[in-house]
Amino acid sequence: MNGGTVIVGSGQAGVSTAFKLRALGYQGSIALVGAEPGLPYHRPPLSKTYLVSAAGAERLHIKHRGMYDSERIELMPDCCVAAIHRDGKTIELADGRTIGYDHLVLATGSRARNLPPEQGGDAANVYTFRTLADATRLRGEMAAGRRLLIVGGGYIGLETAAVARSLGMEVTLIERDSRILGRVAAAETAAHFRALHRQNGVRILEGAGLDRLELHSRRAEAARLADGTAIDADAVVVGIGVVPETGLAERAGLLVRNGIVVDGAGRTSDPSIYAAGDCACFPYEARRIRLESVQNAVDMAEIVARSIVGMAAEYRPVPWFWSDQYSTKLQIAGLNLGYTHVAVRRVSDSVVSIWYYDQQRFLAVDAVNDAKSFMTAKRWLSGGHSPAAEEIANPSVALDAVSLCENAAPIH
Amino acid sequence: MPIIIFIEPDGNQKEVRAEVGQSVMEAAVQNGVKGIDADCGGSCSCATCHGYIDEDWRDRIDPADSVELDMLDFAYMRAEGSRLTCQIKVGDGMDGLLIRLPEAQA
Questions:
Q1: Backbone phi, then psi, for A214, in 5-degree steps?
Q2: Distance of residue A61 Cα from the nearest chain B Cα, in angstroms
Q3: For A44, which of B26, B41, B74 is closest by C-beta distance?
Q4: Fewest CB atoms within 10 Å of the CB: A52, A153, A188, A341?
Q5: Dihedral over Cα of A80, A265, B40, B45: its sign
Q6: Given pLDDT bands bounded at 50, 70 and 90, which one contains residue A412?
Q7: ipTM field
Q8: Do B30 and A61 touch (CB under 8 A)?
Q9: What does the H/E/C string look like for A329-396?
């Protein structure tokens, strides 16, 4: 096979790129090469509803099989890519086959960081969360009365804790830093979620470094903390972040620095090769960042598809994220990088939003059970408006009455 | 399996065989109905699976909860019968449900 577009990675970014290309009228061949078996699926439910539902994996499929045929997208599951040969514009699969490309899209995603083997990361009942296979195996461990230890107090850890409690497991979550959500959210947001999980019976230990897991017959039976405390466990979930999958790009000599470096149009240092989703590091205001989210996968896919068909494309996202825990919905708009302070808008005990500012400039919001704040913030962020913090902090001032000030243009 | 009828933004009518228990949005997206983006995959976080329920059906579907109503405030061209299709669960009695899709989602 020669020419056309080859997409490496069949997660959200890869699938979105393929379908967006067709929606834009792209006529060339499209091959979607994925390492996992089966049809591409939505990842976010893996740590949420999938774990508690009896439903099969079909519910998670992004598109039905017939859609790939009718859109002429050649789906190649279970295929690992061994190398990119940029001179001849081909990729080489692990089984030796080669596929030619005019445009290559790297949508390789990220992999979950695990504990090293010396800490017990290779035990049979230690789980990271990335793939459907991971979640399906973990689902087999989850049952009332069993003890689950969660290492890491980020969103994956907290979501898993919520699901495990709803199934009646005994749950302990340990976080090495002084508080949960330390990397991603303000202390005010962390406090809300700490209280929520404690009310629901999760034991949360912060400032609790893991020394190692204690193994018996290749299964972890307890965690030994740095201070010597032991916590018994039947299963362990490790949620300590992800690492972008950049090996293929690095070996091909593409520029890689905290992800595959792309420009605003999604192009890597080789103009025939693009990157999208978790693996791509793109310009954002005065920085270069990577985002691990569905929004980023979908929106970058659109940018890359536009670039491939020759349309103007400049990635200027308003990032957004969500997390479901118990019946609480957290919606995040914007990025809180470099915030100097927050304003808290407390409508009730369960409806609260935390607004991040860099001086007067509004950066992001964490909206808890408050879709109105989330959607309003999204609109303000895309319009370059900053709401007055002291009015935000006063819930008796309606959002549509809050004074706004125009942001100065970002420095590019 | 109930059949749900979507009127796509260009007026094209598309009939989709839906599974009981899945959401109307999932049935649409998996079958390539044009006019539903559903960026968030069904978590009621993006308001891009907006559709108008045909008048005859409005009373026969469970009403929207408060999160959905808040999100709908921001949907493009909200009108009578506006719903987020990710929040409507397909039931046995929904054979023939008719949903019109808006010109744009955001």
A1: -95, 125
A2: 7
A3: B41
A4: A341
A5: positive
A6: very low
A7: 0.87
A8: yes
A9: EEEEEECCCCCCEEEEEECCCCCEEEEEEECCEEEEEEEECCHHHHHHHHHHHHHCEEECHHHHCCCC
